Amino acid sequence: MVNRSITMRRCPLCHNQHSSVFHQDRKRNMYLCDRCQLVFSDANSHLPPPVEKRRYQQQVAKNQKPLKQFLMSLILQCEQQSTDPLIGLNFGRVAEPDTVLSVESHRHTLYQYDPYFAANHDLLKRQYDFICCYRVFEHFRFPFKEWSLLGKLLKPGAWLAISTKLLTELSAFDRWHHKNNLTHVSFYQHSTFEFLAQQAGFKLLFAANDLILVQKPSGSDIKRDQSSLDDV
Q: What highest taxon heads this organism's lineage (predicted)?
């Protein structure tokens, strides 16, 4: 049973102060933001970074095949709009060399950034034609920070492809296995991405298999758009 006496938490995505306790179990409390509809875990329950890193290492091999498929589908999507060589960023998860070679075989360049395994911060100082985020959004402890960064890393007209399990039924959250992974700390609904896209002025598309496509319009003023979230 949910204990409604628990103190409200500030939403780590839109910074709304009115996020109330939504779910409790023996390991952590979850909160629901009434503005952006993000469900997020109590920061006090976040795993220590060394423990989190070990868990990620155990999942590397498991995610390589779907990551490659996701990346190549994104490449094909981008090629429908441009025949020029593209520069992309694989953000938050490292793909194996054969995946990078597959991208390069299409004449494109793929850089990779991961805070644990490929922390080249110089890559966060340029812009890209496409960005891939495969199963990383659910790991963001401070999703406002990452969302703002990704918006700045996109060139005008560029695509951000996100693969994350969408929360479609709040009433079924207690039975949702996706929440049981303690490295998963942020859970998004369709309305969450709709809120973000509207605030930033981005084009938003929901596709099959928990794929979210976000396009930064040509001439979009990211500094102006992101400041609207700062004031929330």
A: Bacteria
**What are the pLDDT digits (tens) for 216-227?**
998 644 333 333
Domain covering 47-230, topology: Rossmann fold (3.40.50)
Q: Report whether 24 contacts 15 (CB < 8 A).
A: no
Q: Which two tokens stand for residue 45?
A: 């329950």
Burial class (CB within 10 angstroms; exposed 0-12, middle 13-18, buried 19+) of 119 = exposed
Which tokens go with 50? 């060394």
Alpha helix locations (H) across 5-142?
49-79, 97-104
Domain spans of the chain?
47-230
Residues 6+ apart with CB under 8 A from 88: 74, 75, 78, 103, 108, 109, 110, 111, 128, 129, 130, 131, 132
pTM for the structure as a whole: 0.89
